[in-house]
Amino acid sequence: MTWPLLSTVVFLPLLGAIVLLALPRRREALMWGWTLGVMLVTFAVSVVLYAAFDSSLPSMQFSEQAAWIGGLGITYHVGIDGISLPLFVLTTLLSPVALLSAWQSIPTKAKEFAVLMLVLETSMLGAFVALDLFLFFIFWEAMLIPMYLMIGMWGGENRLYATVKFILYTMAGSALMLVAILALHILNLQQGGGRSFDLFDFFALDLSLQQQKLLFMAFFLSFAIKVPLFPFHTWLPDAHTEAPTAGSVILAGVLLKMGGYGFIRFCLPLFPAAATAFAPLISVLAVIGILYGALVAMVQPDIKRLVAYSSVSHLGLVMLGIFAGNLAGLQGGILQMVNHGLTTGALFLLVGMIYDRRHTRLIADYGGLWRQMPIFAVFFLVVMFASIGLPGLNGFVGEFLILLGAFEFNRGFAVLAALGMILSAVYMLWMYQRVMYGEVTHEANRGLRDLSAREITLLAPLVLLMFWIGIYPSTFLRPTDAASAHLLEQVRSRAVLAAPVSAALTPRPFPAGEGAVDHAGGQTP
Amino acid sequence: MKVLVWLIPILPAVAVLLNGLLGRRILRDKAHYLGVGSVGLALLCALIVILRVIADPQHPIEAKLYPWIFAGSFSVDMGLMVDSLSAVMLFVVCGVGFLVHVYSIGYMHGDPSYPRFFTYLNLFMTSMLVLVLADNYLLMFVGWEGVGLCSYLLIGFWYERRSASDAGKKAFIVNRIGDAGFILAMALIFWTTGSLAYHDVFAAAADHQITTGIATAITLLLFIGAMGKSAQIPLYVWLPDAMEGPTPVSALIHAATMVTAGVYMVVRSQALYLLAPISMDVMAGIGAFTALFAASIALVQNDIKRVLAYSTVSQLGYMFLGCGVGAFTSGLFHVMTHAFFKGLLFLGAGSVIHAMHEEQDMRRMGGLRRHIRGTYDTMLLATIAIAGIPPFAGFWSKDEILASAIKGGHVLWWVLGLCAAFMTSFYMFRLIFMTFRGEERFDTEQVHPHESPPSMLQPLRILAVLSVIGGVIVGIPPENGLFHKFVAHAFHNQGEHAVHAFHFWPDVPLMLLSTVIALGGLYLAYLFYIQDPERPKRLAEKFAFAYETLLNKYYIDEFYDAYIVRPVKWSTDALWSVDARVVDGVVNGFGAFTRLYANWSGIVDRWVVDGAVNGVGTVIQSGSRAFRLIQTGVVQNYLLVMALGLFVFATIYLIAL
Questions:
Q1: First to last CA, chain B
Q2: Does residue A122 fall inside a structural domain?
Q3: 0.90 exceeded by pTM
Q4: Neighbouring-strand partners of residue A76
Q5: Residue A156 lies in a domain
Q6: A299, B26, B229, B588: most buried, per Cβ within 10 A?
Q7: Alpha-carbon distance A162 to A237, whole Å?
Q8: pLDDT tens sequence across B409-418
């Protein structure tokens, strides 16, 4: 048996957390060092995984499967393909960055914080690679707890409201998702597939359009809240604003991506006919989100809120790409999720850095920072333009592919999305002008120290990646290529089959039989 | 050769990196070594490349590196290409760029952000070179937005001035509107032809794979992009404000190179435009109107840089007029000559401003010829060139455009163009007369104008030579000179279908007419500003409304503010309250409802459900209390109860039977 590389990456942080629990609370440096070390090792192993990944194959790689709760057919089944790989590595990258950002800004209960960060990382990684829906659900729910605690314990003044909202919103979604997962399980049982929660068994299910639509909607709510898609977004500005910097980085960088990932991994291939049927509706919501998020961002007095609303806008674009139904849109959507993680993560880091100095997030409290903090200004400038989608930086590659895909899907949507790109320049440049340019208007801003070596170390890898993706995106497009094409093929072929045909053509015996075979193979590894 | 082509944009990029990292701490006032040096080397590489293209114009140099962005059938290369069209642009960009860099050494000397200036300026060179060298639309767009970024940064270079950062922001946002058009055009091109590489797209166009309707849509969208970048109505508003930037920036970016990118793009895309007559008409019309409109504003402006800015808008209008009537190469020719004389005019204006200690208002100048003769001489040559007086450069290119308009039957555009030409001559000589002639209108005790250092004057002289001879050498005979023949190679000698033969009739009379009009403008300026300097004032009082309208630039900025900016701001405020009250209101409403429900449940729970439970408990308790009375623990009592019980049972039993 080969070494289970994937599980190693997933559970390294958890293992680290357990060891950390045993470390004495007084030895703070040791604790931080240990946590950072664990995260860096995790990142290193994930890079090895990335390098070993064969991007010509569309299938799952590094798969591992083991029986877990046999009576219900629940297995520990994980695997990674080109769709999850970029997000997986993004997670291992952003986790240490987020941790390092908290090094000085978490004054109390540092040990708890570090433990939560590690647990959070394992649950996020697990959710990206789980191929058993029950397993996925466990990771999915497990993510909430550390994030809930993180905002609740280290958040801003209004953190209680924000945490409750965050938890209730997401729980409302996941409750329905659990029902849908159980429904799939029972349908599988009824169609002779035996007890299973395995994604690949569910692919073989023969679902009527009506069933698909119902199940799709149950999943949809959960993912749409996570993305967040308009009008399910209002938890995000509150959660972002109140969360500590590290929390915001993880929230924007990784947690939001769970929504988009969920749509790609589960909603599209499981319910292709429903996805095709709902695509126009979802695209409308996405386009509204793009414009609405950008317009509302424009008038935010609070920088973090502004960035939060910009996320609503950017993720609207991602959704538009995912549901465009073509390769350009889908690959653009996946890449743009990574881009958004890097860019918005960096934006939150930057905001956190001036918050640490001035303890205010209000734009009006700044002004003239360039003269005071030139290094900060340049980093901010690059990240801002990455967010606006300047060619040569990462954001453009994703945005352009999405627009290209959206254009084929529906020209009107593409035009409106392009309008959103104009607006993104407006709110970002306006904010930048008010914060960085002009004379120093508040005495407290005079003599602010520029970025420290630790802060530059945090930002440098992100900015480097922004240039990398902008100039040589192959590294990140190549792995997603085959898997995306495979997925679209899967959706297209089954969207046609599943529609009204299933009764007329009665293709039932064949796919059902295939499913059973698949299942049998799956159960006895 | 491939390496050499790539070196051209990469050299300045390396300088950007080094200046950006080391400039502030280490290089400081030596930042120009890298800044100017890199551009000088790039110019050298460019000249070699250009010579190679001149030697063999049939075969463009191709330099592909790797597939850049791809997804499914979509793929775009990181590839450069030099054909005769890009060679012309390469010459202009590197040539004028280098001169402006040299000039900046003197002009920006002593600025606290000297390294930052060269970092930005080099970044601009990289972007602009990518723009003109790209072999596909997407990579061109990289340069396209890159120059927009540099324009933003350089306009707002003195960021502590509110007006500067406002102007930079405005420039970027207005350009972004155009860029949205460009992006959509690219999407349409790709879904129509399956590629974004020039070679494939134009082959598809020549092959008639593109219908007229689609071609019209594509070209109009592209033209929206061009309107933003090249400051045409209605997107020109950013360019006059862009004068907030340092003057070398105005010369390089906002006169010679960046603003002509739109023209370059249109000329490059002529295969598409030729399929779309409607787009051509739109372009010619907008160009002609812009030429006249901007020229009329320039008539009354008093800020020396603003006059030149509106002049630039106007001249760009000519270029699009030329393209619109099918004379693409003439439009490009005007790009080149304009780069020489307008670059020179801006650099000269910078020299004037430098001499006058940052004074820009021409009403407080005058008589400067006596103080800064070198600047005056060169600027005068440039003025003659832009006014269109033969045999200077501007005459040849402008006259070709106007001649093409009338020969193509576009009488209205031709008339507009002639009117604009008259105005051009007038406002340019007005500028010269107000600045350099007459009496000093400043305090000669306080201000002692001094000539600029040689590093600033030499670039002026070189540009002056080009402004004088740049047209004659390559532009004769009109529409059939060396320039036209060279550029035609880029389109396999079959691009535009304008007549390229020079005939005595109507060409010579048209040339004479142009000349007369230019001299007329000069004479009028002489009457107004030399012979009787009080005359303009009287005229302005007499036609106060017209004067005010022109002075206030037709109130277009106010119009945009009232009808676009403010409604957007208003709607964003409205949307925010929607978000807080309605969308979030629903959520909070749910929350409040749940809480209310929970409270009610609590009450019900306490009084009804719990009440019932407690009630049961109470009953049992009180019942048991009663029963406890009989639980005495005394055996006799139990026996008594037993006996009584037996008795009762026995009695019932007996009676029932």
A1: 130
A2: yes
A3: no
A4: A66
A5: yes
A6: B229
A7: 9
A8: 889 999 999 9
